[in-house]
Amino acid sequence: MARILICDDESALRAVIKRYAVFEGHEVDEAGDGMEAVEACRKKNYDIIIMDVMMPELDGFSAVKEIRKTSDTPVIMLSARGEEYDKVLGFEVGVDDYVVKPFSSKEIMLRVNAILRRMQNKQHLPAEAESHTVFTKEGLAADMTAYRVMIDGVQIELAPKEYDLLFYLIRNKNIAVPREKLLTEVWGYDYYGDDRTLDTHIKLLRKSLGPYAVFITTLRGLGYRFEG
After folding, report:
1. Long-range contacts made by residues 113-118, C-beta under 8 angstroms, separation at least 24?
2. Residues ≥6 apart with Cβ < 8 Å to 211
3. Distance CA 205, CA 199 (A)
4. Integer Cα distance of 20 and 2 in angstroms
5. Residue 212: is its pLDDT beyond 90?
6. 3-class DSSP state for residue 197?
């Protein structure tokens, strides 16, 4: 069972998602706007947050920024807008997943359960996987145990999924990784629908890596390869 916070100014939408979540055995709290969500997160720890973008009082992006000051709880962002700019902004403030309306409650729960499985797997890593792992190449250093990335000696901050994507590519360096494999392994489920989520994250990751973005090679019609 997980503790889930659903934040959306549409009570009917909250009710539908809550019904599915409760049916699967999760504990659910609701918030009608960003301010309520921030206050709820100050009072209670959640395993996952489902957050709408457009809301009164405080929009979803601003609410996530505030929540990120004290919590790294995974966030699924809901939005009626599917433009790349909005997705990029969401991922930059620390959103784990971005779902464009309209969507089915089944799809939301698939994504919720995928994130929860990924969190559980990280908590039960075998002892050998917990050993300190650091990858270095030229001026890039990636500490995959401490979740730190250095560019020419300067630590940079990445969005949660950027870390996961970079580290997965590094662990599979010099191997051609298909798009479907990346989506399944990094996002934790067989992704369907708009797979531009991966392209957006690759673009953000390359921007963050600066001169070392060249280490990530695009394989047209297949996927990506990290040149290690």
Report:
1. 113/24, 113/189, 114/187, 114/188, 114/189, 115/48, 115/74, 115/76, 115/188, 116/2, 116/47, 116/48, 117/188, 118/188
2. 139, 151
3. 10
4. 13
5. yes
6. helix
pTM of the model: 0.71
Contact predicate 19/60, CB 8 Å: no
- Other Cβ atoms within 10 Å of 98 Cβ, number: 24
The pLDDT assigned to 128 comes to: 46
Q: What is the dihedral of CA 173, 197, 4, 41, to 10 degrees?
A: 90
Cα gap 142→166, rounded to integer Å: 9
**pLDDT of 57-106, one tens digit each?**
899 999 999 999 998 899 999 988 767 777 788 888 888 888 888 888 88
C-alpha distances (whole Å) from 185 to each of 17, 61, 80, 84, 118 are 25, 26, 27, 23, 9
CA distance 167 to 38: 30
Find tokens 């047209």 and name the residue: 220
For residue range 124-133, what is the model confidence (pLDDT) as tens digits? Answer: 555 444 567 8
